[in-house]
Design brief:
Length: about 150
């Protein structure tokens, strides 16, 4: 059975290397006054905490072995996760803006078709949905006929 994991974010206050009967360990103090320790066995994680600025958020993974919880992994949020989250959020915002633009364009085209007498007023929103689907997929609705309209000056 796998060790249960939990994730938490801690804000590092300071660190110090100590030694006890089991060997060296890194003692971590967080801004809330809690302390954590990472044994030398996981010394590859020490630099994540020692290089952290005061109050820097660190994503910590805790695992439990024989009813004792320990830090099994740690990542700087500022360097890795936050940048990815901001990037993902930025992409979602751009996608949302494109979605809104496509819907607005679809409705505008339908309005133009209504003004040109190509569709009835009752079909305005149905045509807007068809236009939107065409913009998203490039496919016409089944059974639809494309009206080739010759515009003056073309």
């Amino acid at each position: 059975m796998a060790n249960p994991k939990r994730h938490d974010i801690i804000l590092v206050d300071r660190t110090e290397v100590n030694t006890d009967g089991r060997g060296p360990f890194l003692k971590i103090y967080d801004m809330a006054g809690n302390t954590f320790r990472i044994a030398e066995k996981r010394s590859q994680l020490w630099d994540v905490f020692r290089n952290a600025q005061k109050a820097e958020p660190i994503l910590v993974t805790f695992e439990t072995y024989m009813k004792v919880e320990y830090i099994s992994d740690a990542k700087s949020i500022v360097d890795d996760i936050l940048k990815q989250a901001v990037s993902n959020l930025g992409l979602k915002i751009v996608d949302k803006q494109n979605e809104e633009r496509n819907r607005s364009t679809s409705l505008s085209y339908s309005k133009d078709m209504l003004c040109a007498g190509k569709i009835e007023k009752e079909k305005l929103f149905e045509q807007a949905q068809d236009n939107y689907n065409f913009i998203k997929t490039g496919l016409c609705p089944e059974g639809a006929k494309l009206n080739k309209v010759k515009y003056e000056g073309s």
